[in-house]
Write a structure and sequence with these properties.
The protein is α/β, with parallel strands linked by helices and 226 residues long. The protein has one domain: Rossmann fold, CATH 3.40.50. The chain is built from 8 helices and 4 strands. A 4-stranded parallel β-sheet has the order 2-1-3-4, sandwiched between helices. Strand 1, helix 4 and strand 2 form a beta-alpha-beta unit. Helix 6 crosses helix 7.
Length: 226
């Protein structure tokens, strides 16, 4: 599992490039539904070699060199499980690229390895999982620390938080996340509350487009001051 986490981190690190070779949606697909399968680890290695050598996934910023660089977005909040990727698709369809996914289907479970030389391997495993910055942990300062680290590494221009209806721990914690993102990181923040149904997709698309327009306006104003 340490090997798998390391390979997935290397894939995720590609999104820190000015023009990532993947979309966030494609990166989300590059994750095994079942962990630890040897053939999947080989595919991770093959994908890393391919993208490090200059290949680009269709629709990625590297694939569209003749177009402006999309708005860089960091996603946080609940996992985007298989079959419920609708929100990330809406974000990238609006002209953004999700460069970092701070959630349990993204970076959160792969940020830390387990010490293979630990005297007590069960304790080492427990320590790794207790370190996860999950919203069920109290007090969860690690999540804000993680968001700060990801902001420095991936240079997002906005943060979007996804909260499923009735996911109360993330809903409660969103107050602190918003305050941290806006006050400490100085980035625009959008909270999306939804479920697996596509019934609100049109409304969410409008809110996402408004956020991205805010980012573009800020960037234009900054360029004008230069």
């Amino acid at each position: 599992m340490n090997r798998e986490r390391g390979l997935r981190r290397r894939l995720a690190d590609l999104m820190a490039l000015d023009r990532p070779p993947l979309t966030g949606r494609r990166l989300l697909d590059l994750k095994s539904l079942i962990s630890g399968i040897a053939s999947d680890l080989e595919q991770y290695e093959r994908a890393i070699r391919m993208f490090e050598d200059g290949a680009a996934a269709p629709g990625s910023p590297r694939d569209r060199l003749d177009e402006p660089v999309p708005v860089r977005v960091l996603m946080t909040g609940v996992p985007m499980v298989h079959g419920a990727e609708r929100v990330i698709e809406l974000i990238e369809a609006a002209g953004a690229v999700v460069v970092a996914q701070e959630n349990c289907t993204g970076l959160k479970p792969i940020l830390e390895d387990i010490d293979p030389g630990a005297e007590d391997p069960v304790r080492a495993i427990a320590e790794k999982y207790y370190h996860l910055p999950c919203s069920v942990m109290t007090v969860n300062e690690r999540r804000l620390d993680s968001l700060g680290d990801l902001n420095r590494r991936f240079r997002p221009q906005a943060v979007i938080e996804l909260v499923w209806h009735a996911c109360l721990t993330y809903d409660v914690e969103s107050f602190r996340v918003r305050r941290f993102v806006e006050d400490e990181l100085g980035l625009p923040y959008l909270k999306i509350e939804t479920d697996y149904s596509p019934s609100d997709s049109a409304r969410l698309a409008v809110r996402i487009e408004a956020l991205l327009e805010t980012v573009r306006s800020r960037a234009a104003a900054d360029e004008g001051r230069l």
